[in-house]
Structures are given as C-alpha cells and as structure tokens.
Amino acid sequence: MDWGTELWDQFEVLERHTQWGLDLLDRYVKFVKERTEVEQAYAKQLRSLVKKYLPKRPAKDDPESKFSQQQSFVQLLQEVNDFAGQRELVAENLSVQVCLELAKYSQEMKQERKMHFQEGRRAQQQLESGFKQLENSKRKFERDCREAEKAAQTAERLDQDINATKADVEKAKQQAHLRSHMAEESKNEYAAQLQRFNRDQAHFYFSQMPQIFDKLQDMDERRATHLGAGYGLLSEAELQVVPIIAKCLEGMKVAAEAVDAKKDSQVLIELHKSGFARPGDVEFEDFSQPMNRVPSDSSLGTPSDGRPELRGSSRSRAKRWPFGKKNKTVVTEDFSHLPPEQQRKRLQQQLEERNRELQKEIDQREALKKMKDVYEKTPQMGDPASLEPRITETLNNIERLKLEVQKYEAWLAEAESRVLSNRGDTLGRHTRPPDPPASAPPDSSSSNNGSQDNKESSEEPPAEEGQDAPIYTEFDEDFEEEPASPIGHCVAIYHFEGSSEGTISMAEGEDLSLMEEDKGDGWTRVRRKQGGEGYVPTSYLRVTLN
After folding, report:
1. 523-528 and 533-537: which strand pairing?
2. What is the CATH number of the domain that holds 18?
3. Rounded CA gap, 3 and 344, in Å?
4. Does residue 491 contact residue 541 with C-beta atoms inside 8 Å?
5. How many domains does the chain have?
6. Would 532 be classed as within a structural domain?
7. DSSP string for 122-159
8. Where is the REM-1 domain (predicted)?
C-alpha cells in the first residue's frame, strides 16, 4: 500500500503528517541535547566532589596514606572520578552521534519535503488554471448559444411580419446566421478545452500527484527509520561504557574489601611507636622533713639538673612527659629530635635511599668504563677522553655517598642501641620479627648488612666490627617468621652464579618462585624449587606476576 494510491485526495493530511514527523525529530534532538548537558553537569559535579575530598598532600608526605582505610577511600575517589569520565564519554557520544547527525539530517529532510510540496502545489495550480479556462470557454459557449437562439427568433418574427421590409428581414437573417456561426465556434473551443482539461486532470490524479505522494512516503519512512536508529544510539551510548562502569564499581567493591582494621592498628604502631621505656613509680617526697632530698631518676617531676624542687612546685609550670605539651623541636640531620624507634626507622629509610643512589652511581661508573673500553678499541665510535669528566663526576658522587652511608650507619647503630637500652628486659617478649634487609645484595661478599650496596671494590675499608652482627641476633631464636607465599613465577634467561652473600645461584631456563619484586636496585628475590631463597639480577629473569 502506498500513499499515491490510497491517499490520493489527502494532500493537506500528508502535509500535516510530514511536518509532525520533522517536529518529532527536532524534539528528540533537543531532548538528547539537554540530556548531554545533564550528563556533563553530573560529571563535572562528580569531578569537583572527588577533587574536594582527595588528599591535598602527596602520599609520600602524608602519614595517613599508609592506613588501608585512607588508601581504600582514595581508590574509591579515583573510581568515582573514572565513573565521571565515562559519563563525559556518554555525553560526547550523544552530542556527536545523535545531536549533530540528526540535526543535519533534519535540515536535509526539511529541504526535501519543501521541494516535494512545492512541486505538488505547482501541479495543483496548473490544474486549477486549466479548469478556469474550461469554465470560461463553457460560459462563452453558453452565451453564444443564447445569442444565436435569440437572433434566430428575431429573424423568424420579422419574416412573418407583413409590415417588415425585405431589408430588415435580410439583416435579421444575416445576424442570426452570424450568431449561429459564433456559437458553433464556441462549441468547438469548449470541446477542445474540455478534452485538454480531462487529459491534464487524469495525469494529475493518476500520475503526477501519486508520484509526489510516493516520494513523500519514501522520505517520511526514511525519516522514521533514521529516528528509530537515533533512539537506539541513546542506549548504545550507555552500553558502550557499561564494561568500564562495571570495572569502576568492581574497583569500589575491592576498595571496600581492602579495609584491614588489624593492619591499620599495626600501621599506627609503626608510625608513632616512640621506643621510650615506661616511666617508673613516682617516689614519695616527705616535705615534713627540713632536709635536702636526693632526686629520683624515675620521677616524672624531678628536674633533669638534679636540683630538688621547692615547696609549691606542684603548681609550677614544669611540663611532665608525656602529659604536658610538647615543645617545638628543631629538625636535625640524624633525626635525634624524634623518639628512638622513629629515629631508627627514619635513619633506616635514609640509609636505603643512599644505598640505592650508591648502587646507581656504581652501575653508571661501570657502564662508562665499558663505553670507554669500546671507544679505545674502536676510536671511530667516539673519543675516550670525552668520558673522563663524567667518570670523574661519578667517582666523586660514589665517594660522597660512601661517606654519607657510613655516617648514617653510625647514626643507625647508635639509634638501635638506644632502642635496645630502652627495651631492657622486655625485648625477650617482643612479638614482631626483625626488619628484613633494606638494600639489595652486594656485588662482593660482605657480612655488613647495613652497607651492602657500598661494598663495590676490595680497596674500600672494612666496616666496623660492631656493625657486622645483626642488631637483633640474640632475639632471633625467640620467634620464627612464617615463610612468605610467592607473588608470581619467573624463568632464568641466563645462568647466574650467586657468590655474594644474600644471592642465590640459578641455571638458564630454571623455573623459580617470585618472592619479592625489584625495588629499583636491579635485584629480585626468588625461591628455588629444590629449596633456597635469595637475590638474583632482575635483568636475568622473565617475570610473570600472579
């Protein structure tokens, strides 16, 4: 069924219907445009909300970032930020694929519709013009017939009148003949005009207008199909981001499950454990006896200079640790302003950083030496003398870092001795295992675990004997550390002979368990299947994480 056959006489209906279809298309475009504005505003508000609640300080400077609660909250905010990005993507896709495309298509449809209806109106005007010409010829034919009949009656009346002259009779007969001839010509013209109009009318109703209506039908059906596809784009834009949004929601769930209250409690201990020994009992001071009293070292209120307090000193402004307010302290390089335990940890961190920097400089020096050897053997590749400034600079950096390492090792040993002295007899009941080695395995055999990375050559002075033994060796037998589970597996690409302390040998192609990733120093801790655990060069491995 088509419009040209079934709706041949519904020109105005088709005009209204096609206009309604274009209006609907424009309404949908406007709806999608406002929808994109809603999505953009929603995404913008989400991003502003995330920015408002994200930590202002970097994670390395923010102690709160070590708590799983804070880490989960930050991860949650990041997932919300990613979710906002997906809403922006939905808005962008709708704007480009729906608003712009359908708006352009709507303009094309309006131009096509206008052209078809203009063609139909011209055809109507031509038919109406032909009908007017037909009516004019018909009226002329009717008028000429009446005039011819009247002239014939007048000639007949004069012919029968005995008083009429012969001239009058002849004149009347000529007039009647003339009128009859004119009526005959009008008749022929009317007949020709009628035949022409009927032909044009048949062409109008059976050919010309049906073709125009069929074109309008095709245009409207294409518009409806395009609009339906536009409806589908609305859901398709959402479906495209569903996998990413699902990952964001899954990330939020993982962040929620990552909150570990026990771990956070332990982190709080690690962050703020002072290492001080608990104060002893406050001794009774008898003010009824007028005599000098020997101050007690265990008394919180006893001045550090050993002078006895005067009467009424309980109302003095002397601050009693740990209940008094803390004075502002001056930050020192050896962190002596911190409690013993915190000082030890900060010194340990600084020592690890210096060892990493030292190892980096040593590697760079070795690389420069190899490059110099290549230049000496192959002069066309470069001038060996050009590397001397860099080698000298690297050597200076190595010497400087060695001195800093020795300095921090001495401070660390002193801090650890303070920790041990404060612990006293309670160390035997210590439940935490000793800290793992802080730095990567050395290049040469050494028993000094505090300065492994700086043992670069045999020319270096040996470490002090007091630093060779681990600090907590005497307490190791009180507890055992549970073996860690592998975090992945790896395959040895090359053979490696672990001759240094802390390293382990491996054969080419051997499968190993990954126990600890490379911390940036070029070494990875692995475990062999037949037993044994140690460090091997990261560049010798092909690693796969679980």
Report:
1. antiparallel
2. 1.20.1270.60
3. 92
4. yes
5. 3
6. yes
7. HHHHHHHHHHHHHHHHHHHHHHHHHHHHHHHHHHHHHH
8. 337-414
Task: Label residue 152 exposed, middle or buried (CB < 10 Å: 0-12, 13-18, 19+).
Answer: middle
Residue 495 shares a structural domain with residue 411: no
Q: Is 112 exposed, middle or buried (0-12, 13-18, 19+ CB in 10 A)?
A: middle
Find the domain containing 528 and state its range: 488-545
506: its two tokens: 């491996």
CATH of the domain at 522: 2.30.30.40
Q: Where is the domain boundary, 207, 239, 261? A: 261
Residue 192's Cβ-side half-sphere holds a number of Cα atoms within 13 Å equal to 6
Q: For residue 191, which of 229, 228, 137, 251 has the smallest C-alpha distance?
A: 137
Same domain, 49 and 162: yes
Answer yes or no: is 239 within a domain. Answer: yes
Give the tokens for residue 339.
């409690």
Say whether 526 sits in a helix, a strand or coil: strand
- Is residue 349 located within the same domain as residue 497? no
Closest CA to 154 of 167, 169, 138, 135: 169
Task: Tally DSSP H helices, then E strands, for the chain.
Answer: 10, 5
- In the block, which residue shows the tokens 């002239």? 151
User: Which of 179, 183, 268, 201 shows the shortest CA–CA distance to 8?
Assistant: 201
What is the distance between the alpha carbons of residues 71 and 52, in angstroms, rounded to a whole number? 16
Long-range contacts formed by 124-127: CB under 8 A, 24+ apart: 124/11, 124/204, 126/200, 126/204, 127/200, 127/201, 127/204
Sequential pLDDT tens for the chain (546 residues): 789 889 888 889 999 999 999 999 999 999 999 999 999 999 999 999 999 999 988 887 788 888 999 999 999 999 999 999 999 999 999 999 999 999 999 999 999 999 999 999 999 999 999 999 999 999 999 999 999 999 899 888 888 888 878 888 888 889 889 989 999 999 999 999 999 999 999 999 999 999 999 999 999 999 999 999 999 999 999 999 999 999 999 999 999 999 999 999 988 988 888 777 778 888 888 888 655 544 444 444 444 444 444 444 444 343 444 544 555 667 788 888 788 888 888 888 889 988 999 999 999 889 988 888 888 888 887 888 888 898 999 999 999 999 999 988 888 888 877 777 765 544 343 333 333 334 444 443 333 343 344 333 333 333 333 334 343 333 344 434 456 788 999 999 988 888 777 889 999 999 999 998 887 778 899 999 888 888 888 888 998 888
- Phi/psi for 280 (5° steps) reads -80, -175
Domain boundary among 397, 421, 445: 421
Residues 108 and 196 in one domain: yes
- Whether 193 and 74 map to the same domain: the answer is yes
Distances (CA, A) of 525 to 179, 358, 505: 128, 20, 12
Q: Say if residue 43 is in the same domain as residue 190.
A: yes
120 shares its domain with 200: yes
Say whether the peptide bond before residue 290 is cis (omega within 30 degrees of 0). no
CA 199 distance to own-chain centroid = 71
